[in-house]
Amino acid sequence: MFLLVLFLVLALFAIIVLAKTIRIIPQARAGIVERFGKYRATLSPGLNMVTPFVDRVRYVIDMREQVVSFPPQPVITEDNLVVSIDTVIYFQVTDPVAATYEIANYISAIEQLTMTTLRNIVGGMTLEQTLTSREDINRGLSGVLDEATGRWGVRVGRVEIKGIDPPPSIKDSMEKQMRADRDKRAVILTAEGQRQSSILTAEGNKQAAILNAEGYRESLILNAQGEREAAILKAQGEGQAILTVFQAIHDGQPDQSLLAYQYLQMMPKIAEGQASKLWIVPSEFTKALEGLGSTIGDVAGIPTETGGPRVRVDMGASEAVEVRGSGELAGAHESVEAALREAQQVASDVPPPVEPPVDPPAAPDAGQQPPQQ
């Protein structure tokens, strides 16, 4: 029984000694071994052997890059405004012995150093610069922390500003300012758009007016050319008509009696006008009436009375009219006599022209004839 108890005690002791001797360090970790309270060695990851009851693994340091987010800290800017700034630190332990024995708590030391450095940097900036200069703040913090933590066996990879929160009143003012600035830019953009629209509209109207003027000018030119051609053609037509009529008259060989007879035929049509109050009878008309009575039987186109049953009257160079009976001859004579009487009546009814009272004119020359009315 005694031997059994002794064996169990020895086995338990062996197990304890073995447990104290064998140390397993995880990957990306480093074990700090102390012997009687003094640093002895640094254990690497894996299976390690130490002296039991003499050596002791004091710390196991994480060698991976770590991320620490610090709570918001109040910082006063250059323009005496208090802002809360959140920071995030990325660091890695490069020397486990220095991180263990050079600083008591390197995480707390990094936090305090970050806050003091941040106050120094932001204290020289205004609120506007603080909000728009995060990269400058990050570079300043990284330089100071890397220089200070190098002797602690810690390397600061980067520092990021997580958030900058100004006071609520400043937020309201900033929002109003931002809103006013956006409204201003909106008004400017609207005015610029209207200006561009007006310019484009004016240019379009200008081009349209130019095109309209050119079209109107072309139409006027074409109209003028058309009117010119029409006038030329009309003048040519009238000239041809006059030449034709003149040639026809010339071929017909009219005399003064025929012209007087044609004038008598036009007198009733002249008398039909309602506004005809004053007639101007030329002096040649009286002469024509005097010659018409004596030559009525010889006017071309009017048949004369003869003793035979049928006679033929000369109508000109190319035409003749055959008189068929004495009834037609009597009707022609009656028509001519009625026309003569009507013409004489019209000539007697014409009032003399009323001349305004003027100074008596000078005596005409002996060879000058007075004008006829």
TrEMBL record:
Superkingdom in the source lineage:
Bacteria
Q: Which UniProt keywords apply?
A: Membrane, Transmembrane, Transmembrane helix
Q: How does it sit in the membrane?
A: Single-pass membrane protein
Q: Where in the cell is it found?
A: Membrane
Pfam families reported for this sequence? Band_7
Which organism is the protein's source? Nocardioides marmoriginsengisoli
Query: Which SMART domains does the entry mention?
Result: PHB
Q: Where is the composition biased (Pro residues)?
A: 350-363
Q: What is the lineage of its organism?
A: Bacteria, Bacillati, Actinomycetota, Actinomycetes, Propionibacteriales
> Where does the UniProt entry say this protein principally localizes?
membrane
Q: Which residues form a coiled coil?
A: none
Q: Which family does it belong to?
A: Belongs to the band 7/mec-2 family.
Q: What is this protein called?
A: SPFH/Band 7/PHB domain protein
Q: What are the Band domain coordinates in residue numbering? A: 20-178
| Low complexity composition bias: residue spans | 364-373
Under InterPro entries, the record lists: Band7/mec-2_domain, Band_7, Band_7/SPFH_dom_sf, Band_7/stomatin-like_CS, Stomatin_HflK_fam
GO CC annotation: what is one?
plasma membrane
Database matches in PANTHER family: STOMATIN-LIKE PROTEIN 2, MITOCHONDRIAL (PTHR43327)
Q: Where is this region: Disordered?
A: 342-373
